[in-house]
């Protein structure tokens, strides 16, 4: 079953069980997917849909930070609930140990090639992004990578 079919089934289930908050989040996601399909005149595959979900999650994380800074904890809690719903459609996240091992391997390989600084960072992020797209927060990966390279 494709990710889009899974999403449609989840929408139907949320309608039947009268989960209004969940239904609103799922419909918003479905609308974002349909908008992208209409704009580009293509049928999106699972990977492209996951990229849309990643973007939605990132937007909500930014909103949470803004709400918390403004002291609006109720709004932040609502955004966290939406992240939980969206996360259901993402692949299982990579473990911290696996990510650290991959970062170490890439850093060692680049140092063996004699690369350092910005060149190494760019190459390493390219390798890690291809390996962990959708399974890891790339902002955290970048932060940890910078620490290892320095």
TrEMBL record:
Keyword Transferase: yes
Pfam family, one: YqeY
Keywords for the protein's UniProt record, in alphabetical order: Transferase
Gene3D superfamilies noted in UniProt: 1.10.10.410, Uncharacterised protein YqeY/AIM41 PF09424, N-terminal domain
GO MF: carbon-nitrogen ligase activity, with glutamine as amido-N-donor; transferase activity
InterPro entries the UniProt entry points to: Asn/Gln_tRNA_amidoTrase-B-like, GatB_Yqey_C_2, YqeY/Aim41, YqeY/Aim41_N
Keyword Transferase appears in the UniProt entry: yes
Protein name: Glutamyl-tRNA amidotransferase
Natural source organism: Basilea psittacipulmonis DSM 24701
Phylogenetic placement of the source organism: Bacteria, Pseudomonadati, Pseudomonadota, Betaproteobacteria, Burkholderiales
